[in-house]
Amino acid sequence: MSDSLRELLNQGYRYALSLCHDASRADDLLQEGWLALLQANGPREKAYLFRAIRSRYLNQIKREKLVVMVPLEPNYENIQNLERDELDNLADMQELEQALGKLRPVEREALFLHAAEGYTAEEVGQHTGQTRGTVLSLIHRARHKLKSWISQQREVKHG
Amino acid sequence: MVDIDRSVKTYYEQAQLSEEQLQKLAAMQDEVPAAQQQVAPNQWLRRSALAVASIMLTVMLFIINGQDDAGIAERVAQEVAMNHNKALAVEYSTDSYDVLSQHMDKLDFTLRAPILGLNDGLALIGGRYCSIQGELAAQIKMVDETGRIYTLYQTRSNAMLQAINNNHLSLEQVNIRLWREQGLLFALAETAKKVELN
């Protein structure tokens, strides 16, 4: 197997994981998305695989609205700066995994695409059909929730 | 990049498919027949006309002959076989369809014991969500008196799946039986028995 195919499949798996936050379900989503891509003879490219996975995920949760209304907030441009005083030493992956499970799928997806895949908010918006402002807001909320939840857990743990 | 983003990146980078999963997905490239070829831009009109004619012909064949769509049956069977072979654990353990149906409340139909096509003596172990051709479905695990595991799939029989009639297929060492009843599509999968060579 080529390294590029290995990387593509792992990227698909991680994206599926960001949507459902469940390893076996992510495996299912990847398999279904990959199968659809092969059956359609689509390009073996990340954007197409992600789209196929997202489509299957949306079908699965068609009764739960993935598209959310996010109220407008000022100063989206400054969100990056506001986040610079993040928690230090955020290396406890188990803690982070639990915190990620507290996010809504749309928040986790936006944060994954931005932080792990390096997409700009504009690109995330193109992929998910949301405006740049909505994406920035989702990312901001995701970071804030992660930070708050981890802080609370640490306070409980250390009194 | 802010610290929390870096941690999220690290978290997801650690998530890797196993070698077995990778090989299985890679092998699908050779196993799955492509449904269509890439269309050159200057040929799209001709291809579109052919596609429309093909669809009309298919619809006419359905109307006139009421034929089963072997293609969709095979695709469903392929998905069922792969899910069966993965042998994933159940999310909800129970021996009752009623209880399972209460747990799996995202389904837009009520889970039920099939009337047709199922041998007596299969005991329900539990179930989990899955999907069949993009349609939300239940994967129900059952066991017979010898300990042999079966998986039963139930999903709403939508317009595409309506084309499937009673069917028996064998794929990837899995025997699959497909049938419809009570407005649902059922698929029963069992691992094919190995032939002993003496």
How would the blueprint of this fold be written?
The complex is a heterodimer of chains A (159) and B (198).
Chain A (H helix, E strand, L loop, with lengths): L2 H18 L2 H17 L6 H15 L18 H4 L10 H8 L4 H12 L4 H8 L3 H27 L1
Helix pairs in contact in A: 1-2, 1-3, 1-6, 2-3, 5-8, 6-8, 7-8
Chain B lengths: L2 H12 L4 H13 L12 H22 L4 H17 L5 E2 L3 H7 L19 E10 L2 E9 L5 E8 L10 E5 L2 E8 L2 E8 L7
Antiparallel strand pairs in B: 1-2, 2-3, 3-4, 4-7, 5-6, 6-7
Q: What is the compact description of this entry?
A:
The complex is a heterodimer of chains A (159) and B (198). Chain A is mostly helical and 159 residues long.
Describe the structure.
The complex is a heterodimer of chains A (159) and B (198). Chain A has two domains: 3-60; 76-158, Orthogonal Bundle (Arc Repressor Mutant, subunit A). In chain A, helix 1 (3-20) packs antiparallel against helix 6 and helix 7 packs across helix 8. The longest helix of chain A is centred in the last third of the chain and has 27 residues, at 132-158. Chain A has eight helices and no strands. Chain A is mainly alpha-helical and 159 residues long. By secondary structure, chain B is of the alpha+beta class. Chain B has a domain at 68-191: Phosphorylase Kinase, domain 1. Helices cover 36% and strands 25% of the residues of chain B. Chain B has five helices and seven strands. Chain B has a seven-stranded antiparallel beta sheet with strand order 1-2-3-4-7-6-5, with helices on both faces. In chain B, a hairpin with a 2-residue loop joins strand 5 and strand 6. The longest helix of chain B is centred in the N-terminal third of the chain and has 22 residues, at 44-65. The termini of chain B are far apart. In chain B, 27% of the residues are buried.
